[in-house]
Design brief:
Length: 126
């Protein structure tokens, strides 16, 4: 399975989805003009990954800011991860937030309440 590696900009997050290396990361800002078009290859990759996932998948999110259209697509990504877990595979999420950023922390808490996979909230200081 070919990895996805997107270098982040001020508008787009850095994304690494590498099954062989066991690296699953989303970090930075997500403000694409067309969030659906930007995230569609990622959602499709996860659908393909779900057919033969690793024994354990740990996904790290270190989002700085994301707009409403991005939040809807990120929720779809979480639902894909939840589906993999429901098929009996081990999935966990690390949701990292700047200790001063209450909005991103609260977003992680909301996800933890709405998604049936383990989500660990981790603060960091910049």
């Amino acid at each position: 399975m070919e990895p996805i590696k997107i270098n982040g900009t001020s508008q787009y997050p850095t994304i690494v989805l590498d099954k062989d290396a066991g690296i699953f990361e989303f970090k930075g800002n997500s403000l694409p003009e067309d969030a659906k078009a930007f995230y569609e290859p990622i959602v499709n990759w996860l659908d393909q990954y779900a057919q033969n996932p690793n024994a354990e998948t740990v996904v790290k999110f270190k989002m700085i800011y994301y707009n409403t259209p991005s939040s809807k697509l990120l929720f779809q990504i979480f639902k894909r991860l939840e589906n993999i877990a429901q098929m009996g595979h081990k999935i966990s999420v690390i949701w990292m937030y700047n200790e001063d950023d209450i909005d991103i922390k609260d977003a992680g808490k909301d996800l933890a309440h709405n998604i049936k996979i383990p989500i660990t909230l981790e603060s960091y200081k910049e």
